[in-house]
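quick q for whoever's on today - can somebody do inverse folding on this one?? i tried earlier but teh output was garbage lol. tokens:
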């Protein structure tokens, strides 16, 4: 399997990577800030904003 993946042409890698990035980017832009706001307490956010 490793040899098969190493021998894939660049076009095939692009056809896999580009859609993955297109889907992951908005998910990360939405989910990460929501998780940070939910997990970090208000005091920690205040200290981090001062820094």
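ok took a stab at it. sequence:
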């Amino acid at each position: 399997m490793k040899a098969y993946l190493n021998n894939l042409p660049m076009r095939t890698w692009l056809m896999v990577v580009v859609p993955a990035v297109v889907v992951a980017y908005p998910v990360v832009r939405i989910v990460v800030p929501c998780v940070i706001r939910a997990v970090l307490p208000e005091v920690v956010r205040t200290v981090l904003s001062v820094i």
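fwiw The chain is about 85% helix and 0% strand. also The first helix runs from residue 2 to 6. so keep that in mind when u check it
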